[in-house]
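Hey team,

Filing this mostly as a record. A colleague (T.K.) asked me to run one chain through the structure pipeline before their review meeting, and I want the input and output archived in the tracker in case anyone asks later how it was produced. No errors, nothing strange. Just documentation.

Input sequence:
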Amino acid sequence: MVPSSLILESGEIFPGFSPDWQKDSFFGEVVFTTGMTGYVESLTDPSFAGQILTFTYPLIGNYGVPNKEFWESGKIQAAGVVTGSISEIPCHWDSKYSLLDWLKLYSVPLITGVDTRELTKLLRKKGVALGAISLKKPKKFFDPNTTHLVKEVSCKSIEKIGRGSKKIIAVDCGMKENIVRCLKKFPVQIIRVPFDYDYSEEDYDALFISNGPGDPAVCKETIAILKKSLKRKKPTMGICLGSQLLALAVGAKTYKLKFGHRGQNHPCMDLERHSCVLTSQNHGYAIDEKTLPLEWKVSFRSLNDDSIEGIEHKKLPFFAVQFHPENHPGPTDAAYLFDKFYKMIEPSTTSPTRGEAWKETDKP
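Output structure:
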């Protein structure tokens, strides 16, 4: 390890240490997540593309990195990692790599020894900031939000998954693998398509819009195709970015949250069931409630800041949530939403119970 710094565009400098292979400056949007575990799933989540991820939990890497069964994509997606301390020697029977070796394998920069509590307090006060992990102060900072991040993480070709009489078009804007695992529990065929693929005239029974990184307003092609498909009134579900894209497609607007929601312990209120669910979250944008059309209603609210966490059409089979009901990492409280989606597709069939449908996705 050699001395290095996390440098924010606003001028603050947080000293720490980085592996000696990191010779360059590495840029991204500095954000924080409150999860105590699940760093492997978080780092491989495409929604973190372009972001330098700060872990608020003080020790990261103690159980190493398991095999790809637990990854949310084929590689690390985050632009960088910030920790208070890091375990160089993992202790877990299923560990394939140490976190340090894994980051080096994918050339993802790390800075450790940082006062992450102070950094998190700063980001909460001033909002997320552009930053760099660097040995020296850069002349200018790169903003990942100016690029089409969804284009970078979306699949490049059509993929057919599973078997069944019902066909689901799944728009991949950076889809987590556990979403696919959850949908595969049902007797359906999943057609995974790129973000800009026009499926609006094809034969399908339901539509799913995935999570993904960046500003939803950048995804103009995805929104335009979604607008056309909604006219067919097919059952439609969105998660995270998919919720924002659905809102934009029906005429609502989105805005950037000050410091976003990232972690596996965010409480939300299900307004229909009048119950609280703990959720896994990873988003920096939200739906502007004042712009939501009259035929739509708010279905979930954050109990931390009262922002919209779910929307639903009052008559048609359209709904979306801002959090991640597929968990991984995180609680399984909201897994029933996949049952709800399947019942929209096949209302005459009893879907698997929550325990049956999710038992294989609840592995640690």
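Quick notes for T.K.: Confidence is low (pLDDT under 50) at residues 351-364. The longest strand covers residues 254-270.
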